[in-house]
Amino acid sequence: MGLLKLGRIDAFLAERTVLYHQLKQMERPTPPLREAGIASIEPLYITFAPGHLSSENYALDLTDGINTMRKSGELARLMVRYGLPYTKQPTP
């Protein structure tokens, strides 16, 4: 972002949600940005070590926690707070 502000680059690649958060954190605005395209859309996976005895419990706890946050609206509030896009998608 620094090089963009200095006018030393005209384009850059970024993950959208990370970029939204960084832009929100900046004290000084950047030059106007325009999304030129999407290189790829990939799902996000979180894994736990298969050999660890608690891995299955961690995965279930994470799923339950996200579903609870989604149902209560807490997940949507966090996404807004951090300037991230939010689509309500159920966890399988």
Provide the low-confidence segments as ranges. Answer: none
How confident overall, as mean pLDDT? 84
Strand coverage percent: under 5%
Which H/E pattern describes the elements?
Answer: HHHH
Largest sheet: none
Q: What does the radius of gyration come to?
A: 18 Å
Number of domains: 2
Q: What share of residues is helical? A: 40-55%
Number of strands: 0
What best-fitting shape do the alpha-carbon axes yield?
elongated
Fold and architecture overview:
This protein is an all-alpha fold. It folds into two domains: 1-40, no CATH class; 43-92, no CATH class. The chain has four helices and no strands. It has helices spanning 2-5, 16-25, 55-72, 74-81. The longest helix is centred in the C-terminal third of the chain and has 18 residues, at 55-72. The protein starts with a helix and ends in an 11-residue tail after the last helix. The model has no long low-confidence stretch (mean pLDDT 84).
